[in-house]
């Protein structure tokens, strides 16, 4: 998988709609993506690092404002960036109130360590299934603030129980860890 950009608010959701028991909340396994590369450019205004990866490709990494030691990163430093997301979904009961919350938590490495740290974001929202294509195995959902997302359905049997108009509570947690690798 080619990671185009590592953002805390990245739309790398894994809405896999794997619901063996639709009344229960179901966790969909996330995926850890790790990239490593040298810092080729730094956009201090927008807090974006351009990394040259080991395969010669370039990646832009957006560093959140909570990363206090951003200014210590220099061109030529080697960075390792890890991204992980985890999703849970639950079919809502009729008349149940919608949810729409977001929380962000940041931590940084110890003062004696090289610049780095991690940030986690958790978003909970109610989405509505707007389209299900069982033949292609794809579901499309829409949520608050113009949010729209399509994803391949992993569990075909569970998908047969879903229909357009069903409301789901979707919770996803994303974490990003960035570390300067000493001596590189």
Descriptive account of the structure:
The chain is mostly beta strands and 184 residues long. It has one domain (5-180). The chain is 2% helix and 52% strand. The protein contains one helix and ten strands. It has one helix at residues 156-159; strands spanning 5-6, 26-43, 48-53, 58-62, 78-91, 100-108, 116-133, 138-142, 148-152, 167-180. Strands 1, 2, 3, 4, 5, 6, 7, 8, 9 and 10 form a ten-stranded mixed sheet that branches. The radius of gyration is 19 Å and the shape is elongated. The two termini are 25 Å apart. Residues 1-23 have low confidence and may be disordered.
Summary tags:
184 residues, ten-stranded mixed β-sheet, 1 helix, 2% helix
The gist of it:
The chain has 184 residues and is mainly beta. It has one domain.
As for the number of domains, it is: 1
The gyration radius over C-alpha positions equals: 19 Å
Report the helical percentage: under 10%
Low-confidence stretches: 1-23
**Biggest β-sheet: count, sense, barrel?**
10 strands, mixed
End-to-end distance: 25 Å
Tell me the strand percentage band: over 45%
Estimate the global geometry from the Cα principal axes: elongated
**What's the rounded overall pLDDT mean?**
77
Backbone structural class: mainly beta
Q: Quick one: how many beta strands?
A: 10
Figure out the total of helices. 1
Q: Which series of helices and strands comes N to C?
A: EEEEEEEEEHE
How would you classify the quaternary structure?
Answer: single chain
């Amino acid at each position: 998988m080619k990671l185009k950009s590592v953002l805390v608010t990245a739309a790398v959701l894994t809405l896999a709609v794997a619901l063996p028991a639709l009344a229960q909340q179901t966790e969909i396994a996330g995926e850890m993506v790790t990239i490593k590369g040298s810092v080729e450019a730094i956009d201090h205004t927008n807090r974006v690092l351009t990394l040259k990866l080991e395969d010669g490709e370039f990646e832009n990494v957006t560093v959140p404002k909570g990363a206090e030691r951003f200014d210590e990163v220099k061109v030529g430093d080697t960075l390792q960036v890890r991204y992980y997301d985890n999703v849970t979904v639950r079919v809502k009961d009729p008349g149940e109130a919608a949810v729409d919350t977001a929380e962000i938590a940041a931590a940084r490495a110890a003062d004696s360590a090289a610049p780095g740290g991690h940030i986690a974001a958790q978003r909970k929202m109610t989405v509505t299934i707007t389209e299900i294509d069982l033949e292609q195995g794809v579901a499309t959902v829409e949520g608050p603030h113009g949010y729209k997302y399509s994803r391949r359905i992993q569990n075909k049997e569970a998908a047969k129980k879903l229909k357009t108009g069903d409301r789901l509570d979707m919770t996803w947690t994303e974490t990003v860890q960035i570390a300067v690798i000493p001596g590189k």
